[in-house]
Amino acid sequence: MKTWNKKPITVTVVNSISAKYKIDTLTAVILARRGITEGNDIEFYLEDNARYLHNPFLFSNMEDVVDRILQAKDEGEKVLIFGDRDVDGITSTTILYDYLTSIGIDAQTRLPGGTDPYGLNLKAIDDFEKENGTLIITVDCGISNVSEIAYAADKCMDVIVLDHHNPPDVLPEPAIIIDPKCEDSGYPFKDISGCAVAYKVVTALRFAMSDLYKNEVALLNVRRDAQNKDKMFVDVMKIENLVEKSSITEEVEIGTPISNTRLLNYLSGQQIFVWDEKSTKNALYELFGTGAEFNCFDFRNSVTEFWPSFKTLSLSDMRKKSKIAVYNPEFDTEISAFFNIFVTYHDTYISKHFPGYVKSNERDLQLVALAALADIMPLKNENRIFVRKGIESMNKGNSREGLLELLSVQNLLEKKITSTDISWNINPVLNATGRLGQPELGLDIFLTKENDKRRELINEVISMNAKRKQFGMDAWEIGNPKAKESIKNHGDKLCVILDEKINRGVSGTLAAKLVQTYNVPSIAMTIVDDTVIGSMRSCRGFDVTTFLDAIDEAGASVDADGEKKGLFISHGGHNYAAGFSFEKSKIEEFEKALAEQIPNIHLSDDDGEVIDIDAELTGKELTPKILDLVDLFEPYGEANRELVFLSKNMRIEDYLIMGKESQHLKLTLNTGKMKWPAIFWSGAEHLHTEFDKGDMIDVIYTIERNTYNGNTTPQMRLISAWRSK
């Protein structure tokens, strides 16, 4: 029986969450037990409206990127979109190419194929120069391409870097960089995919077509001082591109000349919006008399186009209705309520009057969802909305071309698609194209317009995925026998496998499986054309990019020109997953540098055996309605594992042994209120020993949907089971 733990939580915390966010006790229990207790975290579990996504113009360089791309459009420039070979790179390239070509930009795509290294390469730059290209946009790569971007600049090409990988100490220049992991990015959430970064740029480009782009406006509100009838507060917030730029609050005594306040200079030349023009002007007249004339636009009249009931409400009333303020108390002010209405109105206006924008945005979010899951982004913050909205669109039958056919081939159209379905059945197929050196096939699935051609491509890619699986099994047969000795040789801190028979496309897969099996960071390497190509995967809190940086430095040498040169040809990635390459002749230097860095590997204690219980469910709570709770916490994946429940005293009514080797078990459990099917994979060995038909058992399990012949029913998936005491 596996060890389990049900984290203690207080009734006070649970009741507080339940009351504040108006949710049932069981949901509050799970949130509390998972440590999700702050409003700005809880909102991404309870809300899935795109209004909660972060504004793309929070990126400090977003205006520069938008302006440079629009300049390319106006001047008829050729643009190269250079992506990566994985799902994130393919989807990033698709989203950007779709939009740029839709507005008339002469754009072309390129992904690294065959033995090309990761990231922008010199040959791609040279080839683009021959076509008189002037602007390169890297997606899901580029942040580490310092020398390549300098090379492009020497050829009079501009480069925009759209990336999400950890930045090096020296950033590429000259380049306009959008990367949430850069310290000065300005963006509030670092862990979005490369595709999400591309999506943010496209969203900003769409917004740039509106009159509000780079048009600063001021929201103004007047409040009376509840303690002093002779005073009022004037709140002003300046916004640009729907982002707050600055704000002031002036406390003013009635009769004060406006010249004695900051308002005159602050509002000079501004377009001023107020919520209720009549009452606001009356208040301003009372404050400043005839000495100040305010030209204001009554925004409440516009809002009533969509929400007629707002016609009679004050900003004080609107503040009380603000859901965003419930999750973020710092927004619990009248001027913040005004700002939220202003932004929401703009989003609603676009949705109502420009349905083509809505459809394009929906198509893009499907790809952002794929990328978030494929690149193992933590499913918190806005990543949850990306995936939920993307999968919601698929489940409505609105899947974009290419994805629709993939879902069909993988038999996912007749069921409720989940994040697990995407992770297991769609992303591996797309990833196979890059792993086997032909990522352009994955890209063509989304970009090809002809139905017959798309079907041919998908059949080819399905075949490639089968080949990729075989390469993975072959790599495991090569690497696993060497693993234990390697771990021992590296102080039980690291597993290192090097074998030229390993296909380069599955080095990451092998490294990940070694981590999963042995619970230590792992490196898998192969040799291609005198170059060692490797992947590193990590666990237990160990940052692989910092580790690889140290190896690059430790193995550095001085070249013929007297310049210091790192060990790696290229390297980079995320905290838990990275890649690298170096010359075959430097294997000895690599091994020496690796040995020097072993003492610097510090792993957290993690035996991986303890099962964390989210909630204990009684028989009365075990009804099909529990699926609503399971759906609420979707999507599941990195940083948001599946809900795990504990139930006691369940009677085994019947059983069925399944599988070719009779290793699986299906139980029928009587919960008192209904009978539940329960699948116990590899659980047949426990029958007749640890429990039997008629026994009362305690079970740890997840809850899922089982779809068979078009019928969907809830079932348990057992993790552990034992006789009740």
Task: Describe, in short, the structure shown.
The chain is an alpha/beta fold and 725 residues long.
Helix/strand layout:
Blueprint: E1 4-5, H1 11-21, H2 25-33, H3 39-46, H4 62-74, E2 78-82, H5 87-102, E3 106-110, H6 122-130, E4 135-139, H7 146-154, E5 158-162, E6 176-178, H8 194-207, E7 217-224, E8 231-240, E9 243-253, H9 263-266, E10 271-274, H10 277-288, E11 296-298, H11 299-303, H12 315-321, H13 323-327, H14 334-353, H15 355-374, H16 382-395, H17 403-409, H18 419-435, H19 439-447, H20 451-489, E12 495-498, H21 507-518, E13 522-528, E14 531-537, H22 544-554, E15 557-558, E16 564-565, E17 570-573, E18 577-583, H23 587-597, E19 611-612, E20 615-616, H24 626-633, E21 645-658, E22 664-670, E23 675-680, E24 696-708, E25 711-723
Parallel strand pairs: 1-19, 2-3, 2-4, 4-5, 5-6, 7-10, 10-11, 12-13, 20-21, 23-25
Antiparallel strand pairs: 7-8, 8-9, 13-14, 14-18, 15-16, 17-18, 21-22, 21-24, 22-23, 24-25
Helix pairs in contact: 1-2, 5-8, 5-15, 5-19, 8-15, 12-14, 15-16, 15-18, 18-19, 18-20, 19-20, 20-21, 22-23
